[in-house]
Description:
By secondary structure, the protein is α/β, with parallel strands linked by helices. About 45% of the residues lie in helices and about 15% in strands.
Amino acid sequence: MRILLTGGCGFIGSAVIRHLIRATDHQVVNVDKMTYAASEDALEEARTHPRHQLLRADITDPSAMRNIFATHRPDAVMHLAAESHVDRSIDGPAPFIHTNVIGTFVLLEAARTHWATLDRDGQQRFRFHHISTDEVFGALGPHDPPFTESTPYDPRSPYSASKAASDHLVRAWWHTYGLPTFVTNTTNNYGPWQFPEKLIPLVTLNALEGKPLPVYGDGTNQRDWLFVDDHAEALVRALEHAEPGATLAIGARQPRTNLQVVHAICATLDELVPDSAGPRARLIHFVSDRPGHDFRYEIDPARATEALRWTAPHDFDRGLRRTVQWYLDNREWWDGIRGARYAGQRLGTAA
Length: 351
């Protein structure tokens, strides 16, 4: 297939492109605006691979999207481009509405125009795969069952509300126009190349440098964690096998509280690079919770496991060790970001 993939220089998008180049024969047209969190370096060998092409364009630009579809005539779309950091959405929600809602609408319309030009077989094969989040389902209590594909939507932050809106648009274009769309919702991803404002890289780097590790509230907020390369594999399987109109919840069954995650990072660093000042858990302290902080997210991936014949290869401990080691081995990348482009961010966020 020729796949038009949006946000391919982002954290999850770049992992999907690496997987597509390494494990398939598909071609990738990578559309990315190259905002603050994008990194061409994260493409690794795909950056110069003949089956990958990077186009710098904004998904909210209708003319640019129509031209890209007309020029490259993709067989499928994987839509990952999004503003995704919850704290940033609280501080300034407008970019989240613009990119996540308006951008998805523009992309759907460009895809629909393109789809109408395909022959019957091309229309039947075409897929518009929208990648979303479990945060659209709201928050779980301590004893609630995990989210499934049929959980009602109840978003609580500007970020999750914008993603919920985009999910509804994608499904509406299937029901109204017949555009063969489907949606996957996933849990918190972690792994190499994640921008240093997110919980695991931020705590890893601050602990490595002996800086304080503030944790929101009492640290009991819980998330379900999925190693990004495992997610990339699942997303490509979904593109190849999911039926139009489907929803699949992709997760790893690896729930941890924020405090457990921070302690695990500290313990891993203590093992790999001991600190003469003592265990890094000494750096943890608790700070006032952020507004609207959802207590718990967790996905039941049973339907996706059956449909895709896929389970996440990494458990959390092995995935975290690989992640921490990657940041230790790639200081030049993250040091440049923190020094030149990244002015600082509140710590302890799980988003």
